[in-house]
């Protein structure tokens, strides 16, 4: 754990997000018109995201939700995941990233990752970590 101290003044932030994983980054990027503080115990946020999909930064699956859910063994798993996939489909996820300058490319396995031909190939996920709008 890093020994860093953050100053928090009452009223300085409207929302504090604890953890810098994929869900926290996506949440922070979608909160607008408010002051957000994202706290992460490691040196960088999004480290695990960067290594997903064999280092390709896997962000979603390109299949439609019902087809994607077939890959999950139990009906309970499918029932749990389906509302989330119906609320933000893989197609909508691709649009979200493309609008923020991170076009996605589908691999042979159906995984969608940032285009490997992006100029900043070694830091494909850097734009994702800094995609906060508003």
The residue-averaged pLDDT reads 78
* Widest beta sheet: strand line-up: 3-5-4
Low-confidence stretches: 1-5
Helical fraction:
25-40%
| Total discrete domains | 1
- How many distinct helices? 6
* Radius of gyration, in angstroms, nearest whole number: 17 Å
What name is given to the CATH topology?
A: FAD/NAD(P)-binding domain
List keywords for this structure.
single chain, 134 residues, alpha+beta, FAD/NAD(P)-binding domain, three-stranded antiparallel β-sheet, two-stranded parallel sheet, disordered N terminus
Account of the 3D structure:
There is one protein chain. With 134 residues, this protein is of the alpha+beta class. The chain has one domain (15-129): FAD/NAD(P)-binding domain (3-Layer(bba) Sandwich), CATH 3.50.50.60. Helices cover 37% and strands 13% of the residues. It has helices at 22-30, 47-55, 65-69, 75-87, 90-99, 126-129; strands spanning 15-18, 36-39, 60-61, 104-106, 111-114. The two termini are 31 Å apart.
């Amino acid at each position: 754990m890093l020994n860093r101290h953050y100053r928090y003044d009452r009223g300085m932030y409207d929302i504090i997000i604890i953890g810098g994983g994929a869900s926290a980054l996506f949440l922070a990027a979608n909160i607008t018109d408010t002051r957000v503080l994202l706290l992460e115990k490691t040196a960088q946020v999004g480290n695990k995201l960067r290594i997903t999909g064999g280092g390709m930064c896997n962000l979603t699956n390109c299949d439609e939700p019902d087809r994607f859910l077939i890959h999950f063994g139990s009906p309970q798993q499918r029932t749990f995941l389906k509302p989330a996939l119906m609320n933000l489909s893989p197609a909508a996820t691709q649009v979200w990233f493309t609008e923020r300058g991170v076009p996605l490319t589908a691999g042979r396995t159906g995984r969608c990752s940032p285009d490997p031909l992006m100029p900043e190939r070694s830091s494909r996920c850097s734009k994702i970590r800094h995609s906060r709008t508003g």
